[in-house]
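Folds abound. A case:
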Amino acid sequence: MKRKNLIFILSIVIAAAALNINGQTQEYLRGNPANWCRNGLFTNQDAEFKLARVKGDKNSRIYFYKDDDDCPVGEDCRLKSYLIAGDEVITSKTYGKFTCVWYQPKKGDETVGWIETDDLLKRINQPKKGNWVGEWSDASSQISIQPQKQVRTYKIYGTAVWKGLGENVHVGEIDFIAFSSNNKMSMGDNDSEYDCRVKMQQLGRFLIVSDNKNCGGVNVSFDGIYQRK
């Protein structure tokens, strides 16, 4: 086979492979697998976030389950991490007999994963009016919420930072006046799909935040579970 023909064929193969990878990427972006329950995606789930407590005996352990492959329902899905009776969690979506939860201890990092729904007590009643006012923090992201003269209206200002290798640092900022609907707020410009948009839900000691990834430089996001400073 002539070298030119070989190069032409290889070009077609590479192009086809690139299209296939792009197709897979686009398919991935349409929606994550239903069995996924993990930190980076938690606040972006299409679910109603609620507070709940873990039930059980004093010495009982309620284990977390993984979300990869055929988990949480498959074999060998149980993790070593666990909850005990009385622990407070944030609940989101369900998958069969499991509920995706976020557990934030008083000290240390959060744990996110599946637990069996039957191991949850009745969900904690949440006041209809959110307790918004304060200075909220999640790692390097900070959000200030202050009341305005108009009822249920707030000034929202926040900063977020993403740090890459070396001096590669990207920053983001939000600055809005927003109206609260019960314990939820949505804010942002709708003129373009590239404008910054943010959603918030206030639950007890938590502020749950998600954005559309257009509120700062590359990789910057306000997504997270915030607590008052």
About this structure: The chain is about 10% helix and 40% strand. The radius of gyration is 22 Å. The helical segments are 3-30.
